[in-house]
Design goal:
Layout (H helix, E strand, L loop, with lengths): L1 E5 L18 H11 L2 E5 L14
Parallel strand pairs: 1-2
Amino acid sequence: MIEFFVAPGGDDSGPGTRERPFATPGRAREAARAAAAATCSCSSAAAPTPSTSRWN
């Protein structure tokens, strides 16, 4: 399974890795959909309220 990361200092044109995270959850959703099976981790500043989302 592929894992994508989101952080406030990220860049949506990057690969979404821990070292080069995406900037927005929406970009992580697009990448997860393309991968068909993935998890996404957001830093606390990127997603200040804990939540669970289904992106199917």
